[in-house]
Amino acid sequence: MISLTQGRFGSEQVRRAIGDIDKLLGCVRNEPLKYRKRAVAVLSYHRLIRVGHVAGFLGVSHSSVDDWVRRFAQHGCQLLLPFKSEYCKAKDTIYRDLVFEILHSPPSAYRINRTTWRLRDIQSVLARRGLSIARSNIRKIIKNAGYCYRKAKKILTSTDPNYKDKLKKITSILQKLRPKEKFFSIDEYGPFAIKIQGGTSLVPRGHARTVPQRQRSKGTLIVTAALELSTNRITHFYSSAKNTSEMVKLLNRLLDEYADQECIYFSWDAASWHASKALYARVQEINMESNRYPHVELVPLPSSAQFLNVIESVFSGMARAIIHNSDFSSVDAAQAAID
Question: What is the pTM of this model?
Answer without folding.
Answer: 0.60
